[in-house]
Every structure is written in structure tokens, then in C-alpha cells.
Amino acid sequence: MRITVRYFARYRSLVGKSEEELDVPEGITVGELIEILKERHPVLKNEVFAEDDDLADVNVSRNGRYVRFDEVLHDGDIVAIFPPVSGG
Amino acid sequence: MLSERELERYDRQIMIFGKEGQEKLKKAKVAVVGVGGLGSPVAYYLAAAGIGTLLLIDEQKPELSNLNRQILHWEEDLGRNPKPLSAKWKLERFNSDIKIETFVGKLTRENIEEVLEGVDIIVDCLDNFETRFLLDEYSQRKGIPLVHGAIEGTFGQVTTIVPGKTKSLREIFPSVREKGGKLPIIGATAGVVGSIQAMEVIKLLTGLGEPLLNRLLLIDLAYNTFDVVELR
């Protein structure tokens, strides 16, 4: 199935683009998609997502709704990933 | 009751939410927690709008490298006047019809009840999630709205927490890891995000429009993107 991934804030700078379309296995979860993204963009793995990998630092929305990592994805979904920022 | 002077001063916004709306702003007490990059525009615009009482909270004194964004602090304040006092001095000269209260110190579990006593809305202008979660717990316990904002670089986020109606900040960001260290930031980013937070306060108090309830606004000024994520 085909999905669109959108990158926000520093993820956008690290990946170097705002979005991309990806072919991914049917019925994968958000958590599994994150693993695919880490393989595809090692810069995310090294600089953003922790090695121990509880994915604590990544927020994800699916079709404009905030979702958890066990959410199952469907063909045509638009998934956005964004970091929580903390400055003030 | 609004005075003749207040009716004239706030004329252009009374056109939007009426004298009743202006009375609501005048009766309100709003806490601005953190008087830095976000706190400066938030406090400035809330003072301009005629919020009756502003409570400014911060424990730091301004440093030179703060001045690219913390526009309520000037060179003469560096290392001298704690941020709430520095801001109070300007805001009182800007709008003498409102009251500016200050707390110079760090909010803690022990003092939060006393410091935030009587506050109608809390504006989160902090730079760390540890204290944000303390505000969040207090907001939930007391049923007081919390307007969250955060910035980094050219990026910002805003959402408004209303206990009982929306998710709490902890539910939205369950396990934030603090990066620590110096974050990059352009002052205008703080200006945009802080202005939106000030609008959220005015919307909550007057009933104007739709506050960002269960919605997270994500802004990237480098790429002109404004996205709203549904949090339900």
C-alpha cells in the first residue's frame, strides 16, 4: 500500500524534504512505519529517535488526527511526524 | 464599569467583542509563567488588550543573549532586574489602567497553590517540560485553562487545555525527553507563537471564535506552514 509521510520542524530539516510517498507492507502500524523511516533516513535514527527506542520523542498524526504507535495504517493515509518542542 | 478613558483606549476591539467582552478582560487575572521569548509578547499583548490583572512569574535575570527575542527586557536590565520586575516596569508605563503582580522565583509543588491563587487562566511560556507538567497538574486539579506554547528555531506549537473538555498536556506529550542545552531561536518565532497564545486567552475570556481545544497548531515559519492536528 502507498502512504504519504510528512515531516515537521527539525525532522524536515534533517530529512531535507517536507513529504514523500512510500510503498509499505499492508496493515503496518505507526510504530513499524517509524522503523522503516529510521532505515530510510539514518539521520533520524542517529540524531532524533533514541537508540533504546521507546520512540518517546516522536509525535505522529494520521490523516490529521493524533495517534499512538499501535495505530494500524491504511492505503492512502497521510502520516505526519513532528517532535515536541520545549523552548520558550 | 469601564471608564471613558478605557472605552476610548479599547474602542477598536470593543467593536469586535463589545463592552461586555472588555469587562470580562478587565475582571480577569491571567498568569504568564515564564517572562522570556514567549512571555514577552504574551504579557505585552495582554496588557494592551486590558487584562485587569497580569501575574508575571520567572526566577531569572535577563542576559545579553536573551535580547534577540525577549523584547520586554532592555540593555539596562541585564543582570540587574529579575524578568518579572523588568517587565512590570515597562507594562505599567504602557498601560496604567491594569495591575501587574509579580513572583520572582521558581514554581514548585510546594508554592504553586499560593502563587497561582485566584488566577483565571494560565499561559505556559516556559522553556522546560518539568515545570510545564507541574502547571498541567495544577490546571487539572483546579479546573483552570492552560494555554500551552513552545518554540524552537523557526518552529512553534500551541494548544489550549481546558480540564474536562480536552486532553491534558501530559496526555498529549506523555514522555517528553528534555534535550537541554542551548536551543536555537529567532525572536520573530516567539512573536508569532506568543501572539497566538495571547489570542487564545482573549478568545477564552470573551467567547470569541474557537480556541485551539483538542487541536495542536504546528507552525514552521521557515516554510510558511500552519497545520492543525486533531488531538481527540
Overview of this protein structure:
The complex is a heterodimer of chains A (88) and B (232). Chain A has a single domain, classed as Beta-grasp domain (Ubiquitin-like (UB roll), Roll). In chain A, 27% of the residues lie in helices and 26% in strands. Chain A has 3 helices and 5 strands; from the N terminus they run βαβααβββ. Chain A has a 5-stranded mixed β-sheet with strand order 2-1-5-3-4. In chain A, β3 and β4 form a beta hairpin. The model of chain A has no long low-confidence stretch (mean pLDDT 88). With 232 residues, chain B is an alpha/beta fold. Chain B has one domain: 3-Layer(aba) Sandwich (Rossmann fold). Helices cover 38% and strands 20% of the residues of chain B. Chain B is built from 8 helices and 8 strands. In chain B, strands 3-2-1-4-5-6-7-8 form an 8-stranded mixed β-sheet, with helices on both faces. In chain B, α3 packs across α8. Chain B is globular and about 50 Å long. Chain B starts with a helix and ends with a strand. At the A-B interface, α1 of A face β5, β6, β7 and β8 of B.
Characterize this entry briefly.
The complex is a heterodimer of chains A (88) and B (232). By secondary structure, chain A is an alpha+beta fold.
